[in-house]
Amino acid sequence: MSRNAESTAFRSALEVIRAVEPRVADAIGAELTDQRESLKLIASENYASPATLLAMGNWFSDKYAEGTVGRRFYAGCQNVDTVEALAAEHARELFGAAHAYVQPHSGIDANLVAFWAVLADRVESPALKKAQVRQVNDLTEADWFALRRELGNQRMLGMSLDAGGHLTHGFRPNISGKMFDQRSYGTDPATGLIDYDRVAEAAREFKPLILVGGYSAYPRKVNFRILREIADSVGATFMVDMAHFAGLVAGKVFTGDFDPVPHAHIVTTTTHKSLRGPRGGMVLCQPELADQVDRGCPMVLGGPLPHVMAAKAVALAEARRPNFADYAQRIVDNAQALAEGLLRRGAKLVTGGTDNHLVLIDVSGYGLTGRQAEQALLDSGIVTNRNSVPQDPNGAWYTSGIRIGTPALTTRGLGTAEMDQTAELIHTVLTQTTAGANADGTPSKAKYNLDPALADKVARQATDLLAPHPLYPAIDLA
Ligand SMILES: *Cc1c(COP(=O)(O)O)cnc(C)c1O
User: Fold this and answer.
1) Whose CA is nearest to atom 10 of ligand 1?
2) pLDDT in tens, 357-384
3) Is the pLDDT of residue 404 over 90?
């Protein structure tokens, strides 16, 4: 394939769109420019390959395909069957999983599928059995009452939000927090690490139906073998949400005790974070949960997105190539270089470092809230997001942390030397920023002072850092 093919493909696509609604074509073009020019350190974002992006832009979007491969509720699904089966096969082979369900539209949806599958598998309920055999219309009011009573009040034990857990692990803004009686495990205040003895103790006291492992903002490896032993000791189903670190599992950076797939009964993930696929989700599970997982649509999911499943098949095929393992290792090398660069300059990091793709800076060391630091960095061309730190005194809105991650910059080809320069830029901005005051003189958690000339200078340095590593180098829309 000529490199020119990518340029031609995207240019032609924009030309076709422009003829209908030029403002959409312009926005797509502007998004490429913005992504090319910003130093993207958002730990949950990445850049999918042109092949992955192109696999989504076609008539697969026109198909309804409720059901599973070979068992559809709509006619004419033979080509959807091909791509869904391919995506599932690549996922099984890549992760060594017994079963893969590639229909979830996002990570949150994948978790809903998993929760439902575990409830349906584990909770003895005649009303539920009726619902499972698709006799939902036959359920009486009494059946519904029994269902609500039996399915609610089930228990979930997951990682606390401020220690890096995710909203979908039983917290109030998500349905999981309303469905489940939830308790969480935190981290050791001294080390910032998961204390497995405390998790075991909480499990013994609470006796959860589901023990959840996985996180969005914990910068260390998790020992999934130990968590599985804890789950087994109390008869819980062990679920791991690897949304953030699926790429490190795929790339065999996390193996043995740190690979969730052989240890968990059920594993959920996004496909667009470190895994570098299209925006979407996926569930992997052991054979006994496969039938329940496959009922995800229409139980809790809308109709499958065949165009996204096609893109998942492409991205998973890419992740099976040997150079993906090299990519995954470079993600971690870069995160460690970034952490070392920050520590050497005096930054305070949660757990004192990282062994995955992300670093959590405790910006109280700079006298700032997460919100002030996030905005000051953004003014300086550095895109990050604020995040709670364990026992955060500033709560979940203002926070005391900045989460940074390396999957995206590693895709662009930046290496450890550039990570040290990135640490310098971040440290410069945070030391030069001061907390602002409200009109009445009281300290503000949002306002801050930063010399605009310094912000501009750092933004230019950030652009210089990116210049040798163009994003989508073969794509020229001009
Ligand atoms: C990002 C994330 C999700 C949600 O993924 P969406 O695709 O945004 O729905 C779920 N769980 C964890 C642990 C995540 O980090």
Assistant:
1) 107
2) 999 999 999 999 999 999 999 999 999 9
3) yes
Q: How far is the CA of 387 from the centre of ligand 1 (A)?
A: 15
Question: Has residue 31 been placed in a domain?
Answer: no
Q: Does the predicted TM-score (pTM) go above 0.70?
A: yes
Q: Are residues 210 and 254 in the same domain?
A: yes
Query: Which residues have a catalytic role annotated?
Result: 64, 66, 241, 270, 273, 279
For residue 74, the domain's CATH number is 3.40.640.10
CA distances from residue 268 to 345, 367, 408 in whole angstroms, order as listed: 37, 37, 21
Q: Which range marks the domain in which residue 216 is found?
A: 59-319
Examine the domain organization and report whether 226 and 374 are in the same domain: no
255: CB partners within 8 A, 6+ apart: none
Same domain, residue pair 172 and 263: yes
Two tokens at 305?
A: 């997105």
Ligand 1 center–CA 2 separation, angstroms = 36
Which atom of ligand 1 is the closest one to the Cα of 242?
13
Ligand 1 binding site (Cβ under 6 Å of any ligand atom): 44, 106-108, 166, 168, 214, 216, 241, 243-244, 270, 281
pLDDT of residue 135: 64
Phi, psi of 446 (to 5 degrees): -115, -35
The CATH number for 349's domain is 3.90.1150.10
C-beta of residue 28 within 8 angstroms of C-beta of residue 11: no
Contact predicate 146/122, CB 8 Å = no
Confidence of residue 177 (pLDDT cuts 50, 70, 90): confident
Looking at the predicted structure, is the pLDDT value of residue 3 above 80?
no
Domain stops at, among 290, 319, 348: 319
Query: What is the tally of structural domains in the chain?
Result: 2
Residue bearing the CA closest to ligand 1, atom 8: 107
